[in-house]
Amino acid sequence: MKDLVFLTYSEIKKKLNENSLTSFDLVTAYLERIQSVDSKVKAFLNLNADKILNQAKESDERRKSGKILSEFDGIPIGIKDNICIRGEITSCSSKILENFESPYDATVVSKLKEKGFILFPRLNMDEFAMGSSTENSAFQTSKNPFDTERIPGGSSGGSAAAVAASMLPISLGSDTGGSIRQPASLCGIWGLKPTYGRVSRYGLVAYASSLDQIGPFSNDMEGINDLLEILAGLDTKDQTTAKVTNFEAKSVSDLEWKGKKIGVMKTDEFNFSPDVNTRYLEILKDLESKGATLVPLDFSLLKYAIPVYYLIATAECSSNLSRFDGIRYGLRKESTGKLDDLYSESRSAGFGKEVKRRILLGTFSLSSGYYDAYYGKAQKARVLIRKQYADFFKSVDVILQPTSPTTAFKVGEKTKDPIQMYQADILTTSVNLAGVPAISCPAGLDQNGLPIGIQLTTSHFDETKLLGFASALSKLDLCKISLPKEIK
User: Fold this and answer.
1) What is the pTM of this model?
2) Annotation marks residue 166 as catalytic
């Protein structure tokens, strides 16, 4: 039964619907896998095994009685710790919300429950989704299943590591500046950031509201396709969701590379590691041999993406996190009886170092005398970046570039240099600033056995084309990858 955990999402779905596999057996196998390897990976913050097994039993009963909720009934899925589940702790991996029990379900959670998915909360993350390595969690540092001395990426590191370590077939994360795509790349799995407004953010604890987007991780492409169809759609509880044609998983098919125009970047303009650079060029050569036309694009504005992103994101974080004040919910520290002291002591004790840094940066950029010089200019630059992407897609079908400039770095390697850590997101932040969809696809391993990821990007709400290209990319021999069965 232990081999069940190494099935792909599509194999699990098929076996459940053929009645050749029960949800109880599947969930039991995953719980045993978690018990065996999560002490090394540290993807989960806690796990209520009895509650999860009861969900699996209920799913099997529905199948026996012919009352299944959907073809997905009984499939396990992991949930990042900033997505609300009624009756569950939603801490955002922060001390300030360590004991906060959510009174409601996020819209995406409601949709998963309606389909009969078995929820596995809570997956570790960088505190309030602020980080690129999951080292900023207040509780533990998640590890990369390919090498547990290295980081899994962030902020959705727990969600990515759980899938890469075969503790789950699929999971949900959130992406503000690359927090799905970057850990997907470093952990050798698929991770999608949908178009901003495609998926409801209701019930996602906000970091930067104009950038955040919920998206899926999967150990195969079918999991990405199915989850996007389930999660996407207009939501009256989130006014930023867009009224567009619903995405349908069945509309995705492999696209032919012949005759397609692929936007590419000049590798000498960015500090890619040699292995990442080599694999990127090999893939481009392979696609060119299949009839694709490579179109060099001017990514000169990309060098401004990091400062623009961090000005806008920290400003929004400063505003969003002001609600955590020790008054309404969360940690409360009372010592002097004075209101100002209650605020400062609760927030000082509850927030971690990186969260405090970003709150201070955001408060500064929004302060009188500095707003126009910093935040105002950043918003103008964001418009230019968005326009640049619109111009790109007038001449190309898809943009293909590395997801991360390097493979996974070692735990502690960049924690003393925040700027170096921020640079890890240089290839992903511009996508969030523009609001376009992007997916990270596995692209083989480097010479140290660490995963390399390739990012595909298309225009707004063009996920059908995006996932068609991603599926075609996954068929290339250069992009084949096997997830580790043994975690060392």
Assistant:
1) 0.97
2) no
